[in-house]
Amino acid sequence: MALRRRNLIMLVGALAIVSLTGCATGRLPAPLPTPAPDSATLIIIRPAAFTGGGVAWPLAIDGQVVAELGNDEHVAISVAPGEHILGPGDKRRWAVDDLTSTVIAKPGERYYFVMTLSAGFLNATRAVTRLDPVQGRELMAKTKQLE
What we know:
Elements: H1 2-20, E1 40-46, E2 57-61, E3 64-69, E4 73-79, E5 82-88, E6 96-99, E7 101-105, E8 110-119, E9 124-131, H2 133-141, E10 144-145
Parallel strand pairs: 1-8, 4-10, 6-9
Antiparallel strand pairs: 1-4, 2-3, 2-5, 5-7, 8-9
């Protein structure tokens, strides 16, 4: 009887912990700028994933954090034409390598990127990688837009 009671207590405790945990949702630290007529659009997608799913990841463009993307979200950001560097937006975490992408944006064009996390034994790699437009549109359709 004591074993059964202990198992029941452990089950209730585990269910309580699971119900209190959840996926992080993203946010915009400031309103997105109104697109200029000659702007380009950068679409950054964070697909649903278990690894790192409970944390919103900061996204930086040209060193400035513009959004925090939660699991299964995407954001569309207008930028001026020219060269831009996209990457994870914080350096607070130890044992995390960050890989960035560079794009030379042209007026009126849309560029797609994906944010991923690869976990290793003692470190992890966060990356922002460019996608071709077909892959980008497909992946974007599976996520919700951060507004």
